[in-house]
Amino acid sequence: MAQELDPIVRIRELERDRVNFVLENVDLSVANSFRRVMMADLPTVAIDMVEIEANTTVLPDEFIAHRLGMVPLVSANCDEAMRYTRDCSCLEGCRFCSVILTLHVSCQESITLDITSNHLELGAMDDGMDEEGDELSKRPNNFGMPVGKNDPGVAPVLICKIRKGQELKVKCIAKKGIAKEHAKWSPCSAVAFEYDPHNRLRHTTYWYETDIKSEWPLSENAKEEQPVRDDELFDYNAKPNKYYMDVETDGSLGAQEVVMKGLQELQAKLANLILGLKAPEPTAEDEMIPPPPSNMGGPPPTSAWGGATTQWSGAGSGAASWGTSPGAPAGWGSPARAAGWGSPAAGQWGASPSAAAGGWGDTSGWKV
Amino acid sequence: MNAPPRYELYVLEDGERPVEVIEDTKIPNAATIKVVKQDHTLGNLIRAQLLSMPQILFAGYKVPHPLQPYFLIKIQTDGTITPTAILEQACTKLIGTMVTLENKFKREFSFKDVGGVVADDPYGTGAAGGSEWAQGKDYLDF
Question: Which Pfam families match (chain A) (predicted)?
């Protein structure tokens, strides 16, 4: 097993927003989980709600809202410096869980004016939140600003072009999120991942017309490994051992931060699983806490099996197993699931101020 | 408009348990463990680690439906250890691997810093206005 040896890391290139490294002596699954976690599990800040106050440009509101959502915002240390709105004690966003960005551009001259991410300005948050929190002190000065703003070396993101007499005035609310919810929250713009450049392990089969060697040029990484000799026998027990990765970020997080936070996030996931395994089995009392309204009078679960059976039923077949497993009704499986899809959710929806009430009034709100 | 919030795909709900162990009634020393709100990232990682351990007779995982955010991992051991215990052991070992990796990366990054590649921006914030950093507000202690 590869993990008997100590893993080796060699950084080949390092820039602010890019790191190229070689990983050795780890299992393929470790390297791949590392890649996945860097791409999809690290929190960043991105514009999530856009209130359009004036839009006389040629682009429709949703078009602009979508483009604004894609703009990378500086999110350094985001996991500590900001809260998720869903975890925050505020009602509709506060300085701990949202960042306000405003944009107001109008064209008065006979030219074509570019509206870019450089026109986005950090706005004040009038939340009336009097709670104490140390999140703000963990933020860098430019937290939440578009990446590369006021930096002549970085080209701004073009949002719209306007002509004389046109205007765009919007208020954007940026929130913390992860890329599993929407790819705009991914800190990575590209992650390259390669192993076995000579295809020694035959994990892939190359299609070719006449000559496989001339039609499939080797990658740069092939220089790191011995080519396969023509008389070499295929070792079907061989495992990949060396991985070439290149992590490129959009600038919201630095490459170094992405790598380190990625490893920490993996550890957190594993630690949570251990905690979950160690946690005591739910008692009848615990299970009664979130009772589904219709089953208030039901008998308490008789065994762990009852609960388990309910869980096995998927969302669709839930009703059927309610009948067949009488031990479970008061059980605990279903509030979780029902809350997402069934009727109990209606209450939550009404109360949720975020998306629904976003404002179709005089200013229109777009969920990006 | 009535779509469930997307964060339900990865955030445990109130009182929801992250792990559920379902003992196998027909196979000795076997259990199926349901891990909620996790995906292939964790599933494949654990599966591979389990297969490398000598006490394991079988380990496999599946995500039964791509829209339902959980995976099942089925474990059969040789009887010297329970499936839950070995799963815990596997996780601990993996955390160990991650810690080693983290230290190696830390070391490598510190070498690169000395090399002056990113000396002007040691934390790699990728942010504009790097000059503002000089005014203090050090926000990370790697």
Answer: RNA_pol_A_bac, RNA_pol_L
Q: How far is CA A243 from CA A22, A173, A253, in A?
A: 6, 39, 23
The two three-digit tokens of residue A235, written as one number: 């070792």
**Radius of gyration over every alpha carbon of chain A, rounded to an integer in angstroms:** 26
How far apart are alpha carbons A31 and A9 in whole angstroms?
12
Which pLDDT does position A168 carry in this prediction?
97
Q: What is the pLDDT of residues A181-193, one digit of tens each?
A: 999 999 999 999 9
pLDDT tens digits for B77-86?
Answer: 999 999 999 9
Q: Chain B contact for A221, CB < 8 A?
A: no
Specify the amino acid at residue A276.
Answer: G
Start-to-end CA distance of chain B, whole Å, equals 43
d(CA A277, CA A100): 41
Write the pLDDT tens digit of every residue in B60-104. Answer: 999 999 999 999 999 999 999 999 999 999 999 999 999 999 999
State whether the Cα torsion A77-B133-A248-B108 is positive or negative: negative
ipTM: 0.82
How many Cβ atoms are within 10 Å of A240's Cβ, its own excluded? Answer: 15
- Work out the minimum CA distance from B109 to partner chain A, whole angstroms: 8
Q: Do A340 and B124 touch (CB under 8 A)?
A: no
Q: Is A240 on the interface with B (CB under 8 A)?
A: no
pTM surpassing 0.90?
Answer: no
Write the residue in B19, B52, B128 that is nearest to A1 by C-beta. Answer: B52
What CA–CA distance (Å, rounded) separates B32 from B34? 7
Q: Which amino acid is at A99?
A: V
Shortest CA distance to A263 belongs to which of B8, B104, B43? B104
If we measure between CA atoms, which residue out of B49, B134, B7, B117 comes closest to residue A30?
B49
